[in-house]
């Protein structure tokens, strides 16, 4: 009688394999792709996340999407001798696009020199008021900036931006609950202010605070509909 039955021997336990990048691979990597390469070398589940992070970073640094994708391909070729997988390309591309759109949205909302909302953003905020049926509860406080002339009858662009920026800061302090404070035309500021019992008092306060920086300040009522409001903003911009 056999005392021991013949069976399949269990495999000896093995330690998990850890793959590291060689010095040659690190030297061949494109800038900013080391984290992606390390995740690839370790066969990590976080490769896509690493691609997302580098895509966002590349967009903020101004690297074009095509160049970013080519660098991703160089990285996967260097580490795994293959082209990028769909999930890796998708993660990098989406992150790059989101970062770029966020930047474009920022610069389209405010002038980088003055910090004042652009004409496009003013239109958008006023359109929101019409959609919310609250436009009748607001009015436009319009300010024409006083711009001292430079030699030759011209105005200095930096001095103009500084004057408009200071006007905007003052207007925000007076109309703290304004829907928007923006610039239309070259030297005209528009505040989308609540039409309440304090409007006239706030207008008087603004006049006193900017009496040496503004030529004229007045109130424009918002018209019946959004389209007419757009025409009004265009007229204000042309007259500035």
The count of DSSP E runs of length 2 or more, i.e. the number of strands, is 4
Beta-strand percent range: 5-15%
Please give the CATH architecture of the largest domain: 2-Layer Sandwich
Cα shape: elongated
Helix content: 40-55%
Topology pattern, helix = H, strand = E: HHHHHHEHEEHEH
CATH class of the largest domain: Alpha Beta
Uncertain runs with pLDDT below 50, 5 residues or more?
A: 1-16
- Major sheet: arrangement of strands: 2-3-1-4
Q: How many structural units, i.e. domains?
A: 2
Distance between the termini: 109 Å
Structural class computed from helices and strand pairing: alpha+beta
Radius of gyration: 30 Å
- What is the H level of CATH, i.e. the homologous superfamily of the largest domain? Reverse transcriptase/Diguanylate cyclase domain
Q: Helical element count? A: 9
Mean pLDDT reading: 87
| CATH fold-level label of the largest domain | Alpha-Beta Plaits
Q: Biggest β-sheet: count, sense, barrel?
A: 4 strands, antiparallel
């Amino acid at each position: 009688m056999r005392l021991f039955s013949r069976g399949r021997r269990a495999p000896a336990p093995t330690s998990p394999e850890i793959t590291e990048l060689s010095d040659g691979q690190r030297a061949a990597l494109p800038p900013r792709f080391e984290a992606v390469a390390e995740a690839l070398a370790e066969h990590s589940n976080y490769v896509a996340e690493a691609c997302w992070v580098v895509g966002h970073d590349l967009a903020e640094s101004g690297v074009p999407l095509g160049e970013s994708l080519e660098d991703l391909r160089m990285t996967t070729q260097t580490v795994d001798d293959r082209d990028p997988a769909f999930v890796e390309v998708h993660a990098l591309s989406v992150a790059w696009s989101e970062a770029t759109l966020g930047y474009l949205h920022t610069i389209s909302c405010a002038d980088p020199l003055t910090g004042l909302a652009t004409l496009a953003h003013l239109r958008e905020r006023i359109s929101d008021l019409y959609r919310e049926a609250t436009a009748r509860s607001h009015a436009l406080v319009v300010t024409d900036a006083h711009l001292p002339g430079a030699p030759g009858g011209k105005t200095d662009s930096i001095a103009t931006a500084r004057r408009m920026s200071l006007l905007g800061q003052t207007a925000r302090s007076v109309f703290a609950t304004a829907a928007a404070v923006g610039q239309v035309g070259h030297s005209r500021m528009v505040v989308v202010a609540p039409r309440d019992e304090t409007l006239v008092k706030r207008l008087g306060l603004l006049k006193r605070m900017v009496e040496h920086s503004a030529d004229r300040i007045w109130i424009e009522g918002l018209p019946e509909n959004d389209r007419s409001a757009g025409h009004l903003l265009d007229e204000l911009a042309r007259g500035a």
